[in-house]
Design a protein that fits this description.
13% strand; transferase; 44% helix; transmembrane; 6-stranded parallel β-sheet; membrane; Nus1/NgBR; 251 residues; magnesium; 2 domains; globular
Length: 251
Amino acid sequence: MGFYKFILVFLHILLYIRAIILLVWEAFRNFTTGIFGARGNLKEIHLHSKSLQTLPSHISLVILEQAISFSDVAKLVVWCMAMGIKYISVYDHKGILKGDTAKLSSEIIYKQKEVFAKEAKRYTFVLRNSRTKFDHTLAPTQVCITVLSAEDGKQDIVEAAQEFCMSVKQKKYSPKQLDTDLFNDMLKATTGLPDPDLALKFGAVSSVMGFLPWQIRLTEFLTHQTHHNVKYSAFLQSLQKYSRCEKRFGK
């Protein structure tokens, strides 16, 4: 048993060292590209957006770090808006962002002024949670920002299943009517939204920690070690990588 315990501890140490090296490397890369690379002003972002073959219609920012920077999350959201992405979801496991949407909203407005300058009023958004239904036909020019937490994952699936069973009991549906589209409509977290095309995962965790298990069947995941002081160049590199992805849909 002593030998196996030694091997286990040794592997944990190796993984910890690997995580530290990746964190330092990404910080160094972000620092150098931040100095010599793209800055992230509106004109520059528009040029980059036009150069991409494909943009996600729905992008998710999955924050898996304990310390969350509202300012850096807002910065990422505003870059997504400037790129022309209409659906943005922001997730953290504990619901810290969801618990203070007023602070997140004010940070987004502040970052809009930094990036958009005089054009800030042209970029409007709706900030919603899983209990607020969004109908894009009523606000076609607005960006929909959805704030999510762990309760919007498995628990939402359980509640949707219970709702369908109750509907069958009340003879509103028959069991044979259950299909993917109907079940999607019953999920409150993403009602009226397309499934995420791209998820940017921030944190040295090899897990999505409960993030929308039903809706991410075809989602492309790209990992960053941290969202703190994230540079526009790193964000752009992720969109460029996504744009080059070949989508085979399981074929």
